[in-house]
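INFO  loader      accepted 1 record
INFO  loader      residues=372
INFO  predictor   begin
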Amino acid sequence: MEKLEFFLSSYVYPFIYIKVFLGFALSFAITYFTIPMILKISFQKNLMDEPIQRSSHKRKIPNLGGVAIFYAIALVAPILSYQLFENYKFLFPSLVILLFIGVYDDIMVMRAYKKLIAQIVVASLMVLGSDVRIRSFFGLFGVYELSYWFSVLFSIFTFIIIINAINLTDGIDGLAAGFGFLSVLFFSISYFRLGIYNFPLVVLGTIIMGTLGAYLVYNLSNNQAKKTFMGDTGSLLLGFLISFVSICFIDIFIDRPNMGIPQYHLMSAPVIAVAIISLPLVDTFNVIVVRMLNKQPLFQPDKRHIHHKVLSLGYSHKKATIIILGFYISMVVVAYLLRHININLLLLILLCLGLFYAYIPDFIKKINNENK
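INFO  predictor   done
INFO  writer      dumping tokens
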């Protein structure tokens, strides 16, 4: 592979552009042509997501789209982004574990505590086995370098929080995949700007975007025979991969003198990462706080998530997704424009902005009711 890279890089276009194109195109094509086969099996074996009271859909929909997402990533990423799998030995095994857990839950339904144990195992493999850790808060809350074991525990906690937050976001058509596509796009642009050392992460990002793009073709389809959900398989994989690229992003800005690694400086790096994954984090944070204030069980399902609120205003799934993603993009833009201010102030601004967006649907609904 390295000899091939050297040969192709001698031409006008750098090899990274070829990898990016191939990564997106191959993962898109594999997903696009795999999903029809999964749909055929799902209809034959009745492997469907049954609508319940909280569901935003009214009929049974195949929910194994996440298998196609895994298939594309598993085939393309180890070839075009092989450096990551060499450096992070537990990356691929973790994906396989999450595939098994996700498929089992989508077909048989797995108890929540068992899924949590699996997530802890996967997070521990990545943190302890592959050393994917948050090592510093960069002055957030007055904290800089973290002790090893606090770093380990906090990083495992971060993996679990992001995985579950993205799982909760998968409530309406296009939202989780649309968020995943945009968040990975933002991270990939950042990695590309940070130079050649981070190009494997750029390629991984384009592979993820390719498979999500193909999945969205079916997820947003008006043809019920083609429609599919990513299920827990897809949301677990997506949450895990976004956790991985988020922590890697923060880690880039850690000083490593005399290690032959380029040095980058951005004191607001953790908050920029939070901004890029702010949609599920702020939504989950808001719902948990409200449940605590109302003395309700933290894990009791309800319709307080932002996608439920926007749908209650009468918008379709597609329009609700576009509105919510618009809110999300504006938060990322604000974070980027203010990236050089104090890290604690930036976090406060983003939290206030996110909560403001979370309650806009409530304000609109209240005004509409008063005008009736």
